[in-house]
Amino acid sequence: MITGYGRRSVVIAAVLVAGGCARHSASADPTHVAARAETARTATGPGTGASGTGPTASGPTASGPTASGPTASGPTASGPTASGPTASGPPGATPTTPRWTPRAGDDTTPHHPIEFPEELAPFFEQLARVDDGTQAIARVLHFGASMIGMDDLTGVLRDRFQTRFGDGGAGLVLMQRYMTNYMHRSVLLDGRGWEHCYIAHLCRKDGHYGLGGVTFTSTASARTTVATRREGFGSTASRLEVWYAATPQGGKLAVRVDGKEPEILDTRAAALEDRWHAIDVEPGAHEIDIHPYGAPVRAYGVVLETDGPGVVWDQFSMLGAFTKRMLAWGEDHIKGQIARRDPHLVVFTYGGNDLRRFATGKLDVAQYTDEFAESIERVLAGKPDAACLVVGISDRGRTWTHEVEAEHMANVTESHRQAAARAGCAFFDTYAAMGGVGSAKRWRAKDPPLAAGDLKHLTHAGNVVLGGWIYDAIVHEYVRHRLAAPGSTPEG
């Protein structure tokens, strides 16, 4: 169990001030953690006391992905550039950095604020590089349970961020749809013939589940083809990467790009180890075909990215998983996977399944806070200076056969807030944003319905609203972060 404040105070002991925000500014005093969480809870209003009715007709109008995947008007082909005049000074003077000016639409008024927004400073710094036209990627990893299933909420967020900051590519795509809850809307994926081991089932004693929580083992008929989309976001890539594991009994992988002669990867090794095979290609549409043969091969997925500037929003939904299932990753394994992916922001959206444990009296706030904070620490060990964000769960009317009471939702939400404070993450309180007690039923009664009939999940329309709120809250803090930097100027 974690004691004390967590990775921010252990890994980064000093307080670094970046763009006016206290970067990783967590105190090591556990009393401060509770006080900080209480301050945030009081400032935003407790979920159990919220009486709002959720979104109104004038709420956000995020376009979001359609059933066939996101479509993009997005930034121009040249990507985002810094706006505002260049302060060149008098003749002969050393040129200065152009002043940054928010774009039209950046000056959002969040429906609900981000708590502990200073913890997002590392992500904002990378977004600024992308925003200023640097050939760079701002990479986001989004882990969660069924609340992010079908790449719906994550697809909305990817669409909004790529529209504003540029298309960084589809990111990491798993070898096949191992369950209906997993899909990726920004690629064309055809995978078959792979057996899978899913982290929620605790089926690998070695802890090598891959970054997506699923390890795939080939059969004689296994094959995977991943292609860029025909149009819109995800329609171009300039870098491909195969993620796999080498084992003492490993076979071979034939990797063919755009129908050309395949490269043969030997996956045999003296001991189990993770490997990556990167392929640089000309920017444009591409297709990668992976065909294992010989002895069985263990694989994780394929990355498709552009050179930037842009944002990548990876998503790994774990249907039915408790938050603590993240602790099933071997420590060195997940550390290496995270380090390789090199994220700038890691988002966690768990808790819907843990709600059942609260409803049955098997879990309390202190225990769940410890579990969640320890899980965050495990994941972020591979990139200690990455920003992180905990997104709380939506209101639920029931969990399995158990009715959900206001106290249960309040306890889950408070655990999320305290775990975020302890681990040095920002926090978005979805429950309060929706309107608190009974909001799932009110959202269900909307036209169109924003909550599903099971009173556990949101519809696509509901995810468009929630994704728009999260996007607005993050961009609002991004603008504040940039305007606090010297030389920046507000629009107008």
Structural class estimated from helices and strands? alpha+beta
Instruction: Tell how many strands the DSSP assignment holds.
Output: 18
Oligomer: single chain
The low-confidence parts are: 1-23, 46-53, 56-89
- Gross morphology is globular
* Helix content class: 25-40%
What does the main sheet amount to? 9 strands, antiparallel
Secondary-structure topology with pairs:
Layout (H helix, E strand, L loop, with lengths): L6 H5 L4 E3 L2 E3 L6 H15 L76 H11 L5 E8 L8 H13 L5 E4 L12 E12 L15 E15 L8 E10 L5 E6 L5 E4 L6 E12 L2 E7 L4 E8 L4 E8 L13 H11 L3 E5 L4 H6 L5 H16 L6 E5 L6 E2 L2 E2 L2 H18 L2 E3 L1 H5 L4 H6 L15 H24 L9
Parallel strand pairs: 3-13, 3-14, 14-15, 15-18
Antiparallel strand pairs: 1-2, 4-12, 5-6, 6-11, 6-12, 7-10, 7-12, 8-9, 8-11, 16-17
Helix pairs in contact: 2-8, 4-11, 7-8
Overview of the molecule:
- The protein is built from eleven helices and 18 strands.
- Helix content is 26%, strand content 24%.
- A hairpin with a 2-residue loop joins strand 16 (398-399) and strand 17.
- The N and C termini lie far apart (51 Å).
- The strands form four sheets. Strands 4, 5, 6, 7, 8, 9, 10, 11 and 12 form a nine-stranded antiparallel beta sheet that branches. Strands 13-3-14-15-18 form a five-stranded parallel beta sheet, sandwiched between helices. A two-stranded antiparallel ribbon has the order 1-2.
- By secondary structure, the chain is of the alpha+beta class.
- It is globular, with a radius of gyration of 22 Å.
